[in-house]
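[User] I have long wanted to understand how a fold can be written as tokens. Those tokens are not coordinates but codes from a learned vocabulary of shapes. Could you go through the record with me and say what the backbone is doing? Thank you; the sequence and its tokens follow:
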Amino acid sequence: MLDIIPYTPLEVLAVIVEFLRPVLGAIAAVAVIDVVLLGLSAAGLGGSFRGFGRALGSALTVGAAVFLVALALLPAASDGSWGTVQGVTDLLAVTAGALGLGLGAAVAIYPPVQYLVGMASTPAAARR
């Protein structure tokens, strides 16, 4: 199956990294902050996992909103329009890109929301 694709996975990864290069610093900062907040929640310092369902629901709601906005705007980001999206392959590519952005937003926003919801559901005496 991979004989059909004219590019190796490493070449595809190089193109993706080149495309994301302007925002790699911000992505790394968000990832570090997310890991720290998840660690604090897991350790019970300042928060807990009591509000897991509410935090997950909030993160998925934000992810769904990002998916819808990305789905509407991705063709324009590549100097195209919905009129130039023709065929199943183009439609799947745009939808997959929007889905990836939505899931990425949900994953990025979950740790801060979990930390805040955990702080709200934990008594002040237990946080100390």
Residues 47 and 127 are 7 Å apart (CA to CA).
